[in-house]
Amino acid sequence: MYVMLTDVCVFFIELRPSLILGRTMLIANAGDCRAVLGKRGRAIELSKDHKPNCTSERLRIEKLGGVIYDGYLNGQLSVARALGDWHIKGSKGSNCPLSSEPELEEIVLTEEDEFLIMGCDGFWDVMSSQCAVTTVRKELINAVVKETQRKESQPMDWQQ
């Protein structure tokens, strides 16, 4: 029996409309991470998971001579795209089923966009995109309420 442990990396960026309104954001993904935009409480997935058993990835892998065993590329990797894992990629220029070419997504941010969550598969394997957005939004609202209460409880400094 094998037990695999993974590190989990997650962070979010609060988007402030006054700073980014009308700006373009480019998401490039090649691997086991996902980017999710919080848009008025809804989860908008900005990247696709590159799992070998995803139809488009499976077709690409099989066309290049790769195989998928139990959801793993060549029986070794749980992703179909990665920047590392050179032992599987082969020599430069070879047709390898493991791709390092990122998928790109470009969006224009609006006032409705609240924050961006980026995390690795260890996080997304246990939490849905919507659950993550709901949790982050709730914590941001709680932080704003606490900060407002803190400011209101401080005595006014009339000399400023």
From TrEMBL:
The record's PROSITE patterns line, in alphabetical order, gives: PPM_2 (PS51746)
The record, for SMART domains, names:
PP2Cc (SM00332)
Q: What is the lineage of its organism?
A: Eukaryota, Viridiplantae, Streptophyta, Embryophyta, Tracheophyta
Which PANTHER family does the record cross-reference, listed alphabetically?
Answer: PROTEIN PHOSPHATASE 2C, PROTEIN PHOSPHATASE 2C 47-RELATED
What is the name attached to this protein's record?
PPM-type phosphatase domain-containing protein
Which stretches make up the PPM-type phosphatase domain? 1-160
Question: From which domain of life does this come?
Answer: Eukaryota
Supply the Gene3D superfamilies for this chain.
Answer: PPM-type phosphatase domain
Spell out the molecular function terms from Gene Ontology: protein serine/threonine phosphatase activity
Q: Known InterPro entries for this protein?
A: PP2C, PPM-type-like_dom_sf, PPM-type_phosphatase-like_dom
